[in-house]
Amino acid sequence: MMKAWFKSGSPWIWLTAGAVSINLILVVGLLALIAVRGLGHFWPADIVEYRYQDQTGQASVIIGEEVASSLLPEAQAKAAGHEVLNNAEYLVQFLVKTGNRDILGGDFRWIQEQYIQQKSEPQDLISIERREWGNFYGRLVSVKESGSVIAEGDQAWAVAQEKLAKTLDLRDEIDDLQDHDVGAINYSLERLRLKQRSLELKKQWNESTRLDFANQKQELEKQYQAIQQKLGELNREIKKATLVVADANQKQINIPLNRIVKLTRPNSMGLFDKSIEYISTFITFITDEPREANTEGGIFPAIFGTVLMVLLMAIVVTPFGVIAAVYLREYAKQGFITRIIRIAVNNLAGVPSIVYGVFGLGFFVYILGGSIDRIFFPEAAPAPVFGTPGLLWASLTLALLTLPVVIVATEEGLSRIPKSIREGSLALGATKAETLWRTVLPMASPAIMTGLILAVARAAGEVAPLMLVGVVKLAPTLPLDGNFPYLHLDRKFMHLGFHIYDVGFQSPNVEAARPLVYATSLLLVMVIVGLNMFAIAIRNNLREKYRALEN
Amino acid sequence: MSEVNSTQPHSSQLDMMASDRYQRWRLVKDKLVARAVVVGGLSIIAAIVLIFFYLLYVVFPLLLSSHAESVAQYDTPEPALGATLLLAMEEQNEVAVRFTETGKAIFFKVADGTTIATENLPIPEKVTVTSFAHGDFDKAEVIYGLSDGRALIVKHDYKLSYPDGKRVITPSIQYPLGNQPVVVDSNGQALSQVAFKVDDESGTLVAKTADNRMVLAGLTQKKSLFDEEITLERSDVLLETVGSDVDFMLLDKEQRNLYLANRKGDLTIFDVSDKTQPTIKHKLNVMNQGIEISSIEFLNGDISLLIGDTQGELSQWSMVRDQKNHFSVEKLRSFKVSKAPLIAINAEQRRKGMLVADANGAVGIYNSTSERELVKQPVSNNKPAAVALSPRANAFLLQGADSKIHFWHIDNEHPEVSFSSLWQKVWYESYPKPDYIWQSSSASNDFEPKMSLIPLVFGTLKASFYAMLVAIPLSLFGAIYTGYFMTPRVRQYVKPGIEIMGALPTVILGFLAGLWLAPFVEMHLAGIFALLMIVPLGVMVFAFFWQKVPESVRHTIPEGWDAIVLIPVILFSAWFAFAISPTIEAICFNGDLRTWMSSEFGIGYDQRNTLVVGLAMGFAVIPMIFSIAEDAIFSVPKHLTTGSLALGATTWQTMTKVVLLTASPGIFSAIMIGFGRAVGETMIVLMATGNTPVMDLSIFQGLRTLSANIAVEMPESEVNSTHYRVLFLAALVLFMFTFIVNTLAEMIRQNLRQKYSSL
After folding, report:
1. List of chain B residues whose C-beta atoms are within 8 Å of the C-beta of residue A453
2. Cβ contact (<8 Å) for B504 and A327?
3. What pLDDT is recorded for position B52?
4. What is the pLDDT of residues B95-124, one digit of tens each?
């Protein structure tokens, strides 16, 4: 019976089916893992207050968010040096985000269920997101302005919210002045310096130009003074209000309002409030700048850098990829040369991405960039302009890397266009170029689009080569701004994929940054999977269309 | 009318001409487009060739041989001031100094030997120079031992200035311990041999006196709090001499080890870290019977001794500490330089290289790590009196017995790389035995770069091996089922579903592997292994009982949906595997698998290890192998399978005997491409391993791959340095490897496609 069953081969078929199921489970499981962890990051978690008494018998109060729990079998727990009370089968532990890094020294703490005396979620617990030192959890005591208490007890909450809104407005104003106006002045000063150096090199630096430059500098200096004065006033204004808060052990501390980003009372929020809060946190995440070595705040510069780099890459890669595909399908005689080219295309696709990075660094940055600097920017020496990793080189490197993707997709599109259409066009007297331009390429455009989308998806997720040719963990300025020439191809930029690597592995506080990394990953995965699905949809649509044409 | 008639042909002619021009323009355009497209198409080949040749271009200087060439030859400056004790050059190879036995320092131009300045060293009256030695070449210090038991330490120094944009080098003489000689022997006996080292706080002087005592003097500088005055505190002690004769004395820069040797090869090492209580650390003979030491010098870093003998052999000896912390002195390697005695050895100051001169005036340049003979040239016709290698090791001076000075340039950019230093075991300084080690850089100049690519290649292959172990069964079985058994309706969703996995950025897989999977595996190690057994078993058990289920129930699920039916089964068996693992651990492994492994077998466990990399990278290559293999299986012509089935074969027999055989080249190329991808993958290994370049077969240890190594070290390496070029070499190795794999795979696929179309 059993033997016959094995002989029929049916168990092996089931095993192969099992492999498919495992693959599917892995895909779905991975996406679900990222989605759950990533989306969970924005949900305002309840703050829990524990009365805790550990094995030393010392009682304490712990306030924080419960982040994770773990079940350790008794034997493993004992091996790890824990005591297990009451002969329990498992040791239950909770990871609590206690925040208050400035007081406690760390953000997280493991506590054991067996020592928890009481667990509650009082309504008046507050969570403060600070610009430094991570979150604060505790209770609001009072609000002070210029040293005197202006609200206490029940009124404190409303007053604090109102003052915070005002402070945040001031903050925006200060940031705008600093980044925008002061940045522009610094940029102009730097350009003046370079111009002067360039004139000196050309031996055209004389008394009249000197006076001219001095005037311009003075003018900028004057503007700068005016802005500084205004900044001074704003800074005095913003420092006025302070919150007095108490931590778990009733220790009171002062937090100046200008150090606060957000003030919430998650335990008193309803589902609706929480949803609103959730959306607003998500929007801040996407539109804000990172803080605290990228472990807090938003990821806007990384999104911006990724998009800009990918756009530049698309501009470069499309014509080359399409021309190569056209050559392979329309012009070349199928034979030895096309075979070689196909092998070359496959090799381009198969060469490890880090090798592209090495090539980009050596060839684009040092050879091409170095030559450009010597010829066009002698005044900037010894500081490199294009002779250092930057946006342009990153885009070019990735264009080379994604070239095969565009070629393969375009070729597939071209091969599906029925021969009759080309022949019809030629029979009507059009030249080969006209046929190509007027009929073939328009018909293949969705396929080109597919290739481009796939290339963009690939480029958006590639990190290894970018680490060598222009990505940095923190770029002080965006590569696109209001200063002439607006698009700065020589600047370094931030990138979502590198952000994940950097925050997840290089940051000093990995544990605290982890939710943010999951959120960033989720965003990246959504973009990439979305782009891929879109490309697949276009391709399927196209296949249907040509099948109809052929019949 | 006639007017009209006359104009009409005219205008139509114009039209014709315009149209003619237009037609020609169309043809020209057509030709231009054709040209451009051909150029564009061929540029793909150009791109891949460019990448290859650029990598080769950067790597190429590593392969170039070194050479030296004569630049100038002139008479020794100021020959009347006595014989040369030492020649030395400054950094720029413009100014050199000659210390003479009469206590003079003569600075001269390297290019033509014209004297720049002559300094009289403050040697007291009625006292003569009885010995001489050099200190650290880095610090440009020398010592004169005097006939009254005192010694004078002298430093030659060079100041750079740029008046009018031109470089001017001004030499000077300084006295680090003051311009009064310091007392070495308190008995006032003449010093017949000296050795010394000084640093900012302390100094050590060793001398052999005329009456054969060995004196060790320690100096400590005391700066008083109130004024700048420096006072020296001095201690001295007599060394128990090791037999009567000491011909060579060397003191290392840490002032910790003192090496004494005689010509017969008896080497004694004293521990002099305590200046008042020197002890003998080790004693041995380094020469064979009948051969004598003719010169001895430290290699850069003062860890190894370079010993030249009368038979022309140069050997490197280093103190080595084994696992049990026992010291021994081992001969690391030797070079056969010539047949004549080696009379001068000059160590390079920034690399582990040396220049050796023999008694016939021939010069050889060697590198210890790479065991390369870089240059061998006859320079002078007679015995050299003094040799000086420049600080950058790009020039040397040799003074012959005929009082001629020879000035040579050396072109020797990358001596530390050779086939053996990259691919074979190398016995590095102070290592107990030859080994493969990658450790490319450190802050100090004395560091010996260890650039063996073997640990990296090993790590790369190890990681890809485990990745393939995970990926091949899952992807191939999956491809077999999807390509042959699955109904088209399900396949339409399943195939792109698995393929989309391939689009996931590897940085995300790496991040999950490092921060989620690694701790998970650490916690549930037993569960992971249980999974391997229980899941296939669960599937089999389910399949066995499934056929016993009444047909009416079985038929509610259409054929080809097995994979979907199995999802809950697999989820359940996976859960079961993890649930049962603590019990298994409690019964078989004393409760905890990891502690059990380390106590029973001594197997250590790294959190980020090869198992994690294998799982994550396996996951990353599954879609690629799956997709290509599935294409190959799916496009096996239908008449072959139907023929087989018609002849009475079961579906499984048809699968293994017909479909798999026909598609096997495609499957093979799928595996090759997947392997190529695993070898080059960077982010996953970078994030999921500890990146330690160890060579350990254990699956629970970390590793470092070629690609991760490039990503880690490239941003910090100096452009065009040896390290930079070796990293390019690593990239070239990766490129070549994937090139071969991909080309092969693509050729197999092209052949397969032709075969299918002919079937």
Report:
1. none
2. no
3. 93
4. 999 999 888 999 999 988 899 999 888 888
The answer to whether position A24 is within a domain reads no
Cα–Cα dist B635/B638, whole Å? 8
**Chain B partners within 8 Å of A343 (Cβ):** 742-743, 746-747
Predicted TM-score (pTM) of this structure: 0.89
Q: What confidence category does residue B212 fall into, taking pLDDT thresholds of 50, 70 and 90? A: confident
Looking at the structure, tell me whether residues B48 and B129 fall in a common domain: no
* Interchain pair A13, B571: CB under 8 A: no
Taking a C-beta distance cutoff of 8 angstroms, is the pair A269, A44 a contact? yes
518-537 in A: which are within 8 Å (CB) of B? 521, 524-525, 528-529, 532-533, 536
Neighbouring CB atoms inside 10 A of B686's CB total 27
In total, how many domains does chain B have? 3
Residue B10 has pLDDT above 70, yes or no: no
Residues A487 and A528 in one domain: yes
Does residue A485 have a cis bond before it (omega within 30 degrees)?
Answer: yes
B48's CB contacts (< 8 A; 6+ apart) are: A344, A347, A348, A351
Give the DSSP letter string of B555-614. Answer: TTSPTT-HHHHHHHHHHHHHHHHHHHHHHHHHHHSTT-HHHHHHHHT-----SS-HHHHH
Whether the CB of B29 is below 8 Å from some CB of chain A: the reply is yes
CB B430 within 8 A of CB B319: yes
Burial of A282 (0-12, 13-18, 19+ CB in 10 A): middle
- Tell me whether B728 touches chain A (CB under 8 Å): yes
**Contact between B43 and A324 using a beta-carbon 8 Å cutoff:** yes
For CA atoms B717, B719, B722, B726, give the dihedral sign.
positive
Which B residues in the span 415-474 are in contact with A, Cβ-Cβ below 8 Å?
473-474
Across the interface, whether the CB atoms of A347 and B743 are under 8 A apart is answered yes
* Residues B680, A457: C-beta atoms closer than 8 Å: no
Q: What pLDDT, in 10s, does the model give residues B710-736? A: 999 998 888 888 999 999 999 999 999
- Position B1 confidence tier, pLDDT thresholds 50, 70, 90: very low
- CA dihedral in degrees (B286, B290, B296, B302; nearest 10)? -10
Are B238 and B140 contained in the same domain?
yes
Answer yes or no: is B531 within a domain.
yes
Q: How confident is the model at residue A322 (pLDDT cuts 50, 70, 90)?
A: very high
**Residue numbers in A near B563 (CB within 8 A):** 17-18, 20-21, 24
Q: How far apart are CA A350 and CA B628, in angstroms?
A: 14
- B6 and B145: one domain? no
Instruction: Report if residue A6 sits inside a domain.
Output: no
Three-class SS of residue B331?
A: strand
Contact A339 B750 (CB under 8 A): yes
Question: Among A229, A254, A288, where does a domain finish?
Answer: A288
CB A273 within 8 Å of CB A265: no
Q: Does B485 touch chain A (CB under 8 A)?
A: yes
Q: What would the two tokens of residue B592 be? A: 């905890």
Q: Which of A23, A350, A528 sits opposite B673 (nearest CB)?
A: A350
Render B137-193 in DSSP notation, one character per residue. TTTTEEEEEETTSEEEEEEEEEEEE-GGG--EEEEEEE-TT-SSPEES-TT---EEE
Note whether residue A249 is domain-resident: no
Contacts of B721 in chain A (CB under 8 A): none
Compute the distance between CA of residue B559 and CA of residue B294 in angstroms, rounded to an integer: 89
The residue-averaged pLDDT of A75-100 equals 82
Q: How many residues does chain B have?
A: 759
For residue B37, the enclosing domain spans 2-62
- Residues A133, A151: one domain? no
Cβ count near B145 (within 10 Å): 27
Task: Check CB contact of A415 with chain B, cutoff 8 Å.
Answer: no
Residues B554 and B700 in one domain: yes
